[in-house]
Amino acid sequence: MNKPLVSLLALAAAALAFTVPPAPKPLFDGKTTAGWHTYLKKDASGWSVENGTLTTNGKGGDLVTDAEYGDFDLEFEFKVQPKGNSGVIYKVIESPELDQPYKSGPEYQVIDDKGYEWKVNGQVQKLSTRQLTGASYDILAPNDLAAVKPAGEWNTGRIVVKNNHVEHYLNGKKVVSYDYGSPAWKELVAQSKFAQWKYAEPHAKGRIALQGHGDVAWYRNLRIQEL
Q1: I need a surface site. Which of 78, 138, 190, 206 has the fewest CB within 10 A?
Q2: Which CATH number applies to 23-226?
Q3: DSSP labels for 132-157?
Q4: pLDDT computed for residue 22 by the predictor
Q5: d(Cα 30, Cα 18) in Å, to the nearest integer?
Q6: Closest by alpha carbon to 44, among 59, 34, 52, 53?
Q7: What is the DSSP letter of 192?
């Protein structure tokens, strides 16, 4: 083999090695809370491992990754109790000035679409489409309201963040797509409860959080690929 061809092949191999992202890795080992801690705490209080799942009764706060992530492809399975509420929040800035992860990062909504309700001044409230499973919570509704399985059953979620383009998947269906930090996104945020929070300031990376919202929730098979 001649030297120019060898050099060309070597350069091609080097370029390929440089551009191929790392292989997916587990975010949860199925046995311990290693790699996670409760928001603004040092340990994973309020969360436990049960039959290969990360679970909470929702009373102990949100669980966040020790590491921060920028561009990534995250897959996970989840279920909530009937009338339950949870979520997966990303780009979380952990700071004592922010008492909750949702004040800094977008949320992939996890909820009992049919059964969840609450009262305001004695009046029962129902979810809007922007509050249903797979939504970018309070910002964008999922485009397929039939993609979710009922509370108590396992669903598969996926969040892809690449060059500020974000996609939410629910049971294999792409249900949300948006450009983080774009003028269109900023307009939607300006009309939401997040308008005056750190959420409204686009940032490159952050932690990933599993939300404890006062209800029992389970997560398993969490795998992430950094892009």
Answers
A1: 190
A2: 2.60.120.560
A3: STTSBTTTB--S-TTSPPPTTS-EEE
A4: 81
A5: 31
A6: 34
A7: S
